[in-house]
Amino acid sequence: MKKTRISDILIFVFLVALSFVFLIPIITVVANSFKDKFSISQTPFVLPNSTTFSGVENYINGIADTGFPSAFFWSLFITLSSVGVIVLFTSMTAWYITRNKTRFNKTLYYLFVFSMIVPFQMVMFTMSKIANLLRLDNPFGLIFIYLGFGAGLSVFIFSGFVKSIPISLEEAAIIDGCNVFQTFWHVVFPMLRPTAITVAILNTMWIWNDYLLPYLIIGSDYKTIPIAVQYLKGGYGSVDMGAMMAMLVLSIVPVVTFYLTCQKYIIKGVAAGAVKG
């Protein structure tokens, strides 16, 4: 009993220390966002003091130089729309291929799973060309491209949870007069809520912070936050580090807030999605 208690304390201390290690980069970015750019280069790991403190000057300059309000709008629009489309269509797909056990649906499921292991670099040039030909090189077209890239993991997670839902509930709904769509919306989808939130969190963190895909598809016409921050680079590789740190802080605040609000659903949803039937 005593050995178990000591081991638990040691594990707790180790995890607390590990959490501080993960927090150091965030603390460093936040601290440097309030320092002048020369102090950031000379003493990046020192907290701001009366000499190096620059107030909110970095935030004002960063917002002005990057067009942050416009970039924030496009990031928010693309993220919310893409996540909504992913959750809606992949939940319906997972329910259909799980409940209709045909050879075609089984093959379709494995294709979704296979898509998770295909590196993005293998398809990015072909994808960019096709997106241009199909006139998908705009924020609305980017939503459907995110649906394609996010479908694999989302269908996999939803399928695992659907297998744990008793089919008798759906049969009872059909007997009561529900059609297929009513059965899904009023019986199945409410039970998918923990998994849906998990899928939404995972895709939100990915899409909000994604740089390469928006850069390849929409370029600088509709700058998202990662692209806007990149434009703080000046000639000959010069970078306004103060403004960049300030913009990084503003970019991580929404997604960190969203994650902390919904984090309790992640483990619950992933564990539910791991059930096999």
Describe the 3D structure.
This protein is 77% helix and 0% strand. It has 277 residues and is mainly α. Helix 4 (68-99) runs antiparallel to helix 10, helix 7 (139-162) runs antiparallel to helix 10 (193-209) and helix 10 packs across helix 14. The longest helix has 32 residues, at 68-99. The chain is globular and about 75 Å long.
Overall shape: globular
- The CATH topology is given as MetI-like fold
CATH superfamily: MetI-like
Whole-number tally of structural domains: 1
The tally of strands reads 0
The termini sit apart by 38 Å
Q: What is the SS-derived class?
A: mainly alpha
Counting DSSP H or I runs of 4 or more residues, the number of helices is: 14
What is the average of the pLDDT values?
Answer: 85
How much helix, percentage-wise, in residues?
over 70%
Strand percent estimate:
under 5%
Name the poorly predicted regions: 273-277
The rounded Rg comes to 23 Å
Using the coordinates above, name the CATH class: Mainly Alpha
Secondary-structure element series: HHHHHHHHHHHHHH
- The CATH architecture assignment turns out to be Orthogonal Bundle
The main sheet comes to: none
Question: Which structural traits does this protein have?
Answer:
mainly alpha; MetI-like fold; globular; 14 helices; disordered C terminus; 277 residues
In summary, what is this structure?
With 277 residues, the protein is an all-alpha fold.
Topology:
Elements lengths: L1 H31 L4 H6 L14 H10 L1 H32 L3 H13 L4 H14 L5 H24 L4 H9 L4 H12 L1 H17 L2 H6 L7 H6 L10 H22 L1 H10 L4
Helix pairs in contact: 1-13, 3-13, 4-5, 4-7, 4-10, 5-7, 7-10, 7-14, 8-9, 10-13, 10-14
